[in-house]
């Protein structure tokens, strides 16, 4: 069975600083990988996903993540964060069109 | 893009009553829907997977008689919390899977408070 580990429960950074949210997964087969963002009392919004092809995927708001098969990682990065990026971020994995398994979440707090 | 509508967004009910939560895919047919529960400051816990026209598959430890799931059409799944108790208070989120969209679309969640 697959599992996801987000190593940092909380990440505080200053505005305009770079950030990396770490995600590692375990699975015995090929997987699809996702990053979701959740604002307070709301559902999840897809940030970006890796299904196949290029290992570097980007979102429209400046986030990117790189699939590293050898290290079984899918870390999320942004070169310069904004106050509005404050939210909970979840990494998730699925084995084909199956259920999503989520990591524990990382709370990103941006300080002015 | 794919949109999933979840209602109600908030509900308060008395202990012992039942509450129904609806999850609709608005612009695509969802062959599979998922129901999650999220505790405060915690991750999402999958409760069950439902496929249209068949019985839901519940995760270990989830009471199927307490959390009734119906997926009668390709655009609607419902979760009914029966005989609710305060410990059932939580944030419930649905997700729909569309093969065409090759992805999972989430509803906006339902905050259930049992008093």
**What helical percentage do the residues of chain B reach?**
under 10%
List the helices and strands of chain A in order: EEEEEEEEEEEE
* Percent helix of chain A: under 10%
Radius of gyration of chain A: 13 Å
In DSSP terms (H or I, runs of 4 or more residues), the helix count of chain B works out at 0
Strand content of chain B: over 45%
* Principal-axes shape call of chain A: globular
Query: Which pair of protein chains has the largest interface, and what are the residue counts?
Result: A-B, 21 and 23 residues
Q: Count of DSSP helices of chain A?
A: 0
Structural class of chain B: mainly beta
Low confidence ranges of chain B: none
Oligomerization:
heterodimer
Q: How far is it from the N-terminal to the C-terminal residue of chain A, by CA?
A: 41 Å
Broad structural category of chain A = mainly beta
Structure report:
The complex is a heterodimer of chains A (112) and B (115). With 112 residues, chain A is mainly beta. Helices cover 0% and strands 52% of the residues of chain A. Chain A is built from no helices and twelve strands. Chain A has strands spanning 3-5, 10-14, 19-21, 24-26, 32-38, 44-50, 56-58, 64-68, 73-78, 87-94, 101-102, 106-111. In chain A, the strands form three sheets. In chain A, strands 2, 5, 6, 10, 11 and 12 form a six-stranded mixed β-sheet that branches. In chain A, strands 3-9-8-7 form a four-stranded antiparallel β-sheet, with no helix packed on it. Chain A starts with a strand and ends with a strand. In chain A, 35% of the residues are buried. Helix content of chain B is 0%, strand content 55%. Chain B is globular, with a radius of gyration of 13 Å. The chains are: A mainly beta (112), B mainly beta (115). Chain A binds chain B through residues 34, 36, 41-46, 49, 51, 90, 94, 97, 99-105, 107, and chain B through 6, 32, 34, 41-44, 46, 49, 91, 93, 95, 97, 99, 102-109, 111.
